[in-house]
Protein backbone atom coordinates (compact mmCIF):
# COMPACT_ATOMS: atom_id res chain seq x y z
CA UNK A 1 0.00 0.00 0.00
CA UNK A 2 1.37 3.43 -0.93
CA UNK A 3 2.45 5.79 1.81
CA UNK A 4 0.25 8.79 2.51
CA UNK A 5 0.99 12.30 3.73
CA UNK A 6 -0.38 11.21 7.13
CA UNK A 7 2.29 8.49 7.30
CA UNK A 8 5.00 11.06 6.54
CA UNK A 9 3.67 13.42 9.24
CA UNK A 10 3.54 10.59 11.80
CA UNK A 11 7.10 9.42 11.10
CA UNK A 12 8.53 12.96 11.05
CA UNK A 13 6.53 13.85 14.19
CA UNK A 14 5.00 16.95 12.61
CA UNK A 15 1.56 18.00 11.44
CA UNK A 16 0.14 17.28 7.98
CA UNK A 17 0.13 21.01 7.24
CA UNK A 18 3.88 21.17 8.00
CA UNK A 19 4.56 18.34 5.56
CA UNK A 20 2.53 20.23 2.95
CA UNK A 21 4.56 23.41 3.55
CA UNK A 22 7.81 21.51 3.07
CA UNK A 23 6.67 19.73 -0.09
CA UNK A 24 5.21 22.87 -1.69
CA UNK A 25 7.80 25.24 -0.24
CA UNK A 26 4.87 27.53 0.56
CA UNK A 27 5.88 28.84 4.01
CA UNK A 28 9.12 28.97 6.04
CA UNK A 29 10.01 25.81 7.98
CA UNK A 30 13.05 25.31 10.20
CA UNK A 31 15.98 23.37 8.69
CA UNK A 32 15.64 20.62 11.31
CA UNK A 33 11.93 20.06 10.58
CA UNK A 34 12.58 20.18 6.82
CA UNK A 35 15.28 17.52 7.21
CA UNK A 36 12.97 15.24 9.22
CA UNK A 37 10.19 15.54 6.66
CA UNK A 38 12.49 14.71 3.72
CA UNK A 39 14.03 11.81 5.63
CA UNK A 40 10.52 10.45 6.24
CA UNK A 41 9.60 10.89 2.57
CA UNK A 42 12.71 8.97 1.52
CA UNK A 43 12.16 6.19 4.05
CA UNK A 44 8.50 5.69 3.11
CA UNK A 45 8.94 6.27 -0.64
CA UNK A 46 6.13 8.80 -0.51
CA UNK A 47 5.01 10.28 -3.86
CA UNK A 48 3.06 13.57 -3.56
CA UNK A 49 -0.23 13.86 -5.44
CA UNK A 50 0.86 16.13 -8.28
CA UNK A 51 -2.67 17.25 -9.16
CA UNK A 52 -3.43 18.26 -5.59
CA UNK A 53 -0.03 19.88 -5.30
CA UNK A 54 -0.60 21.94 -8.45
CA UNK A 55 -3.87 23.25 -7.01
CA UNK A 56 -1.96 24.57 -4.00
CA UNK A 57 1.11 25.96 -5.77
CA UNK A 58 -0.72 27.01 -8.97
CA UNK A 59 2.12 25.25 -10.83
CA UNK A 60 1.89 21.89 -12.58
CA UNK A 61 5.20 22.24 -14.44
CA UNK A 62 3.38 20.82 -17.48
CA UNK A 63 3.26 22.23 -21.00
CA UNK A 64 0.64 20.86 -23.40
CA UNK A 65 1.44 20.23 -27.06
CA UNK A 66 -1.11 19.48 -29.76
CA UNK A 67 0.45 18.37 -33.07
CA UNK A 68 -0.93 17.32 -36.43
CA UNK A 69 1.06 14.07 -36.52
CA UNK A 70 4.18 13.24 -34.49
CA UNK A 71 5.11 10.92 -37.38
CA UNK A 72 5.98 13.98 -39.52
CA UNK A 73 9.75 14.40 -39.28
CA UNK A 74 9.69 18.19 -39.01
CA UNK A 75 7.10 18.04 -36.21
CA UNK A 76 9.21 15.45 -34.38
CA UNK A 77 12.16 17.87 -34.55
CA UNK A 78 10.05 20.70 -33.12
CA UNK A 79 8.79 18.50 -30.29
CA UNK A 80 12.33 17.39 -29.49
CA UNK A 81 13.36 21.04 -29.16
CA UNK A 82 10.37 21.74 -26.93
CA UNK A 83 11.00 18.72 -24.73
CA UNK A 84 14.75 19.13 -24.29
CA UNK A 85 14.61 22.84 -23.48
CA UNK A 86 11.54 22.31 -21.31
CA UNK A 87 13.51 19.87 -19.15
CA UNK A 88 16.16 22.51 -18.59
CA UNK A 89 13.47 24.57 -16.86
CA UNK A 90 11.91 21.58 -15.07
CA UNK A 91 8.86 21.39 -17.33
CA UNK A 92 7.41 18.15 -18.70
CA UNK A 93 5.15 17.91 -21.74
CA UNK A 94 1.82 16.27 -22.49
CA UNK A 95 1.67 15.42 -26.20
CA UNK A 96 -1.30 14.55 -28.41
CA UNK A 97 -1.72 14.12 -32.18
CA UNK A 98 -4.89 15.43 -33.85
CA UNK A 99 -4.16 14.15 -37.39
CA UNK A 100 -5.63 17.40 -38.71
CA UNK A 101 -9.09 16.78 -37.27
CA UNK A 102 -10.76 19.98 -36.06
CA UNK A 103 -12.86 18.29 -33.40
CA UNK A 104 -9.89 16.30 -32.11
CA UNK A 105 -7.85 19.49 -31.67
CA UNK A 106 -10.69 20.96 -29.60
CA UNK A 107 -11.03 17.77 -27.55
CA UNK A 108 -7.32 17.71 -26.72
CA UNK A 109 -7.34 21.40 -25.81
CA UNK A 110 -10.02 20.69 -23.20
CA UNK A 111 -8.06 17.68 -21.97
CA UNK A 112 -4.92 19.77 -21.51
CA UNK A 113 -6.86 22.34 -19.48
CA UNK A 114 -8.13 19.56 -17.21
CA UNK A 115 -4.51 18.53 -16.63
CA UNK A 116 -3.70 22.05 -15.37
CA UNK A 117 -1.04 22.70 -18.03
CA UNK A 118 0.66 26.07 -17.66
CA UNK A 119 0.99 26.75 -21.38
CA UNK A 120 0.01 25.27 -24.75
CA UNK A 121 1.89 24.98 -28.05
CA UNK A 122 -0.28 24.16 -31.06
CA UNK A 123 1.66 22.71 -34.03
CA UNK A 124 -0.86 22.52 -36.86
CA UNK A 125 -1.09 22.45 -40.64
CA UNK A 126 -4.58 23.96 -40.66
CA UNK A 127 -6.22 27.07 -39.20
CA UNK A 128 -8.81 25.98 -36.64
CA UNK A 129 -10.36 29.25 -35.45
CA UNK A 130 -12.60 27.47 -32.96
CA UNK A 131 -9.75 25.78 -31.10
CA UNK A 132 -7.63 28.94 -31.22
CA UNK A 133 -10.36 30.97 -29.56
CA UNK A 134 -10.93 28.17 -27.05
CA UNK A 135 -7.26 28.08 -25.99
CA UNK A 136 -7.02 31.87 -25.86
CA UNK A 137 -9.90 31.73 -23.39
CA UNK A 138 -7.79 29.61 -21.02
CA UNK A 139 -5.73 32.74 -20.24
CA UNK A 140 -2.42 30.86 -20.25
CA UNK A 141 0.63 31.33 -22.52
CA UNK A 142 -0.16 30.06 -26.03
CA UNK A 143 1.99 29.77 -29.15
CA UNK A 144 0.80 28.67 -32.59
CA UNK A 145 3.34 27.06 -34.95
CA UNK A 146 2.16 26.40 -38.51
CA UNK A 147 4.10 25.30 -41.57
CA UNK A 148 1.61 26.66 -44.11
CA UNK A 149 -0.44 29.47 -42.53
CA UNK A 150 0.08 32.53 -40.36
CA UNK A 151 -2.15 33.86 -37.61
CA UNK A 152 -1.20 37.46 -36.97
CA UNK A 153 -3.22 37.51 -33.74
CA UNK A 154 -0.98 34.94 -32.05
CA UNK A 155 2.74 34.83 -31.21
CA UNK A 156 4.78 32.38 -33.25
CA UNK A 157 8.36 31.38 -34.01
CA UNK A 158 9.58 31.06 -37.60
CA UNK A 159 11.92 32.47 -40.20
CA UNK A 160 10.97 35.55 -42.24
CA UNK A 161 9.38 33.82 -45.24
CA UNK A 162 9.44 36.84 -47.54
CA UNK A 163 13.12 37.50 -46.82
CA UNK A 164 14.01 33.80 -47.16
CA UNK A 165 12.31 33.56 -50.56
CA UNK A 166 14.03 36.77 -51.68
CA UNK A 167 17.44 35.37 -50.72
CA UNK A 168 16.88 32.05 -52.46
CA UNK A 169 15.77 33.76 -55.67
CA UNK A 170 18.80 36.05 -55.49
CA UNK A 171 21.02 33.01 -55.02
CA UNK A 172 19.63 31.51 -58.23
CA UNK A 173 20.20 34.81 -60.01
CA UNK A 174 23.80 34.81 -58.79
CA UNK A 175 24.22 31.36 -60.37
CA UNK A 176 23.26 32.96 -63.69
CA UNK A 177 19.62 31.88 -63.89
CA UNK A 178 17.51 34.64 -65.45
CA UNK A 179 14.28 32.75 -66.05
CA UNK A 180 13.13 31.24 -62.76
CA UNK A 181 9.80 29.50 -62.15
CA UNK A 182 8.24 29.61 -58.69
CA UNK A 183 6.20 26.47 -58.01
CA UNK A 184 3.58 27.12 -55.35
CA UNK A 185 0.40 25.29 -54.32
CA UNK A 186 -3.26 26.14 -54.81
CA UNK A 187 -4.03 28.07 -51.65
CA UNK A 188 -6.78 30.69 -51.65
CA UNK A 189 -6.62 31.85 -48.05
CA UNK A 190 -5.11 35.25 -47.39
CA UNK A 191 -3.24 33.90 -44.37
CA UNK A 192 -1.23 31.40 -46.39
CA UNK A 193 2.52 31.81 -45.96
CA UNK A 194 2.75 31.47 -49.74
CA UNK A 195 1.73 35.11 -49.99
CA UNK A 196 4.98 36.16 -48.29
CA UNK A 197 7.14 33.72 -50.24
CA UNK A 198 5.72 34.90 -53.56
CA UNK A 199 6.31 38.52 -52.53
CA UNK A 200 9.98 37.71 -51.89
CA UNK A 201 10.33 35.95 -55.24
CA UNK A 202 8.71 38.86 -57.07
CA UNK A 203 10.89 41.43 -55.33
CA UNK A 204 14.04 39.66 -56.52
CA UNK A 205 12.76 39.27 -60.09
CA UNK A 206 11.85 42.97 -60.30
CA UNK A 207 15.50 43.85 -59.74
CA UNK A 208 16.27 42.43 -63.19
CA UNK A 209 16.02 44.99 -65.96
CA UNK A 210 13.99 42.64 -68.14
CA UNK A 211 12.93 40.32 -65.35
CA UNK A 212 9.80 38.29 -65.94
CA UNK A 213 8.04 36.24 -63.28
CA UNK A 214 6.79 32.71 -63.82
CA UNK A 215 4.46 31.27 -61.17
CA UNK A 216 2.69 27.92 -61.41
CA UNK A 217 0.44 26.22 -58.85
CA UNK A 218 0.51 22.53 -58.02
CA UNK A 219 -2.57 20.92 -56.46
CA UNK A 220 -0.92 20.65 -53.04
CA UNK A 221 2.35 20.46 -51.12
CA UNK A 222 3.12 16.73 -51.28
CA UNK A 223 5.68 14.70 -53.24
CA UNK A 224 2.81 13.33 -55.32
CA UNK A 225 1.65 16.86 -56.12
CA UNK A 226 5.16 17.77 -57.27
CA UNK A 227 5.27 14.77 -59.56
CA UNK A 228 1.80 15.47 -60.99
CA UNK A 229 2.83 19.06 -61.74
CA UNK A 230 5.77 17.80 -63.79
CA UNK A 231 4.06 17.89 -67.22
CA UNK A 232 2.97 21.51 -66.92
CA UNK A 233 6.23 22.61 -65.31
CA UNK A 234 8.40 21.13 -68.04
CA UNK A 235 6.10 22.58 -70.69
CA UNK A 236 6.64 26.04 -69.16
CA UNK A 237 10.37 25.37 -68.94
CA UNK A 238 10.62 24.62 -72.64
CA UNK A 239 8.36 27.47 -73.76
CA UNK A 240 10.12 30.16 -71.69
CA UNK A 241 13.76 29.00 -71.54
CA UNK A 242 13.40 28.52 -67.77
CA UNK A 243 16.58 27.17 -66.20
CA UNK A 244 15.59 26.94 -62.52
CA UNK A 245 12.48 25.97 -60.54
CA UNK A 246 12.07 27.25 -56.97
CA UNK A 247 9.59 25.00 -55.13
CA UNK A 248 7.69 26.32 -52.11
CA UNK A 249 8.24 23.07 -50.16
CA UNK A 250 10.88 20.34 -50.23
CA UNK A 251 8.25 17.70 -50.92
CA UNK A 252 7.19 19.44 -54.14
CA UNK A 253 10.83 19.67 -55.20
CA UNK A 254 11.43 15.95 -54.55
CA UNK A 255 8.31 15.04 -56.53
CA UNK A 256 9.42 17.21 -59.45
CA UNK A 257 12.92 15.68 -59.38
CA UNK A 258 11.30 12.22 -59.52
CA UNK A 259 9.31 13.30 -62.56
CA UNK A 260 12.47 14.58 -64.24
CA UNK A 261 14.29 11.33 -63.51
CA UNK A 262 11.47 9.30 -65.09
CA UNK A 263 11.58 11.53 -68.19
CA UNK A 264 15.38 11.58 -68.69
CA UNK A 265 15.75 15.20 -67.56
CA UNK A 266 18.99 15.66 -65.66
CA UNK A 267 19.26 17.69 -62.45
CA UNK A 268 21.00 20.15 -62.40
CA UNK A 269 22.47 19.76 -65.89
CA UNK A 270 19.17 20.32 -67.71
CA UNK A 271 17.38 22.28 -65.00
CA UNK A 272 18.11 23.39 -61.44
CA UNK A 273 15.54 22.68 -58.71
CA UNK A 274 15.48 23.99 -55.16
CA UNK A 275 13.08 23.63 -52.24
CA UNK A 276 12.05 25.14 -48.94
CA UNK A 277 12.20 23.66 -45.46
CA UNK A 278 15.28 21.41 -45.30
CA UNK A 279 13.24 18.43 -44.20
CA UNK A 280 15.16 15.26 -43.42
CA UNK A 281 14.79 13.84 -46.92
CA UNK A 282 16.41 16.93 -48.51
CA UNK A 283 19.96 15.91 -47.57
CA UNK A 284 19.37 12.17 -48.08
CA UNK A 285 17.85 12.32 -51.56
CA UNK A 286 20.07 12.33 -54.66
CA UNK A 287 20.90 14.81 -55.94
CA UNK A 288 20.97 16.46 -52.53
CA UNK A 289 18.44 19.26 -52.49
CA UNK A 290 19.38 22.93 -52.37
CA UNK A 291 16.86 24.48 -50.00
CA UNK A 292 15.99 27.10 -47.39
CA UNK A 293 16.56 25.73 -43.90
CA UNK A 294 13.65 26.03 -41.51
CA UNK A 295 15.35 25.25 -38.16
CA UNK A 296 12.59 23.07 -36.74
CA UNK A 297 14.42 22.05 -33.55
CA UNK A 298 15.25 25.68 -32.80
CA UNK A 299 11.67 26.74 -33.53
CA UNK A 300 10.42 24.33 -30.87
CA UNK A 301 13.16 25.32 -28.43
CA UNK A 302 12.48 29.04 -28.77
CA UNK A 303 8.71 28.47 -28.55
CA UNK A 304 8.89 26.86 -25.13
CA UNK A 305 11.47 29.40 -23.97
CA UNK A 306 8.96 32.14 -24.80
CA UNK A 307 6.32 30.36 -22.71
CA UNK A 308 8.69 29.93 -19.76
CA UNK A 309 9.66 33.61 -19.93
CA UNK A 310 6.01 34.62 -19.89
CA UNK A 311 5.30 32.33 -16.93
CA UNK A 312 8.23 33.85 -15.07
CA UNK A 313 7.06 37.38 -15.78
CA UNK A 314 10.17 38.19 -17.83
CA UNK A 315 10.22 40.90 -20.48
CA UNK A 316 8.91 39.54 -23.78
CA UNK A 317 10.19 40.28 -27.25
CA UNK A 318 7.85 41.17 -30.12
CA UNK A 319 4.91 38.87 -30.86
CA UNK A 320 6.74 37.02 -33.64
CA UNK A 321 10.25 35.65 -33.18
CA UNK A 322 12.24 35.37 -36.43
CA UNK A 323 15.21 33.00 -36.52
CA UNK A 324 18.27 33.33 -38.81
CA UNK A 325 17.87 32.39 -42.48
CA UNK A 326 20.22 29.86 -44.05
CA UNK A 327 20.44 28.57 -47.62
CA UNK A 328 21.62 24.96 -47.81
CA UNK A 329 23.65 24.96 -51.05
CA UNK A 330 23.69 21.43 -52.40
CA UNK A 331 23.75 19.47 -55.66
CA UNK A 332 20.33 20.17 -57.21
CA UNK A 333 21.24 23.69 -58.35
CA UNK A 334 24.02 24.41 -60.83
CA UNK A 335 25.66 27.50 -62.20
CA UNK A 336 24.91 28.78 -65.70
CA UNK A 337 28.36 28.74 -67.25
CA UNK A 338 28.00 31.52 -69.80
CA UNK A 339 25.46 33.72 -71.58
CA UNK A 340 25.52 31.60 -74.75
CA UNK A 341 24.60 28.48 -72.81
CA UNK A 342 21.90 30.34 -70.90
CA UNK A 343 20.33 31.63 -74.12
CA UNK A 344 20.57 28.20 -75.71
CA UNK A 345 18.62 26.69 -72.84
Short key terms for the protein model shown above:
345 residues, alpha/beta, disordered C terminus
In words, what does this structure look like?
- With 345 residues, the chain is of the alpha/beta class.
- The chain has 15 helices and twelve strands.
- It has helices at 5-12, 16-24, 31-44, 50-57, 73-88, 102-114, 129-136, 161-174, 194-206, 223-228, 230-240, 250-262, 280-284, 296-311, 339-344, and strands at residues 62-67, 92-97, 119-124, 142-146, 156-158, 180-185, 214-218, 244-247, 272-277, 290-293, 320-322, 326-328.
- It has a six-stranded mixed sheet with strand order 7-6-8-9-10-12, sandwiched between helices.
- Helix 1 crosses helix 2 (16-24) and helix 1 packs across helix 3 (31-44).
- The radius of gyration is 26 Å and the shape is elongated.
- The termini are far apart.
Outline the fold blueprint:
Elements: H1 5-12, H2 16-24, H3 31-44, H4 50-57, E1 62-67, H5 73-88, E2 92-97, H6 102-114, E3 119-124, H7 129-136, E4 142-146, E5 156-158, H8 161-174, E6 180-185, H9 194-206, E7 214-218, H10 223-228, H11 230-240, E8 244-247, H12 250-262, E9 272-277, H13 280-284, E10 290-293, H14 296-311, E11 320-322, E12 326-328, H15 339-344
Parallel strand pairs: 1-2, 1-3, 3-4, 5-11, 6-7, 6-8, 8-9, 9-10
Antiparallel strand pairs: 10-12
Helix pairs in contact: 1-2, 1-3, 5-14, 6-7, 8-9
Amino acid sequence: MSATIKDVARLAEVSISTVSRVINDSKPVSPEVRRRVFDAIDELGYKPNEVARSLVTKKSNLIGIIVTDIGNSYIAQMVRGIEEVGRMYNYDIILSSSYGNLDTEKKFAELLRSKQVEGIILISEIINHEVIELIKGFKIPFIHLNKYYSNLDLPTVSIDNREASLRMTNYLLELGHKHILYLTAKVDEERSLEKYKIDGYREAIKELKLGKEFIHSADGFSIEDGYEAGNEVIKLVKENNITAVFCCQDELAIGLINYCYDNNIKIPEDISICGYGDTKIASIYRPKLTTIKEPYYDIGAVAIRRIVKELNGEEMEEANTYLPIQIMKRESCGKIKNKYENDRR
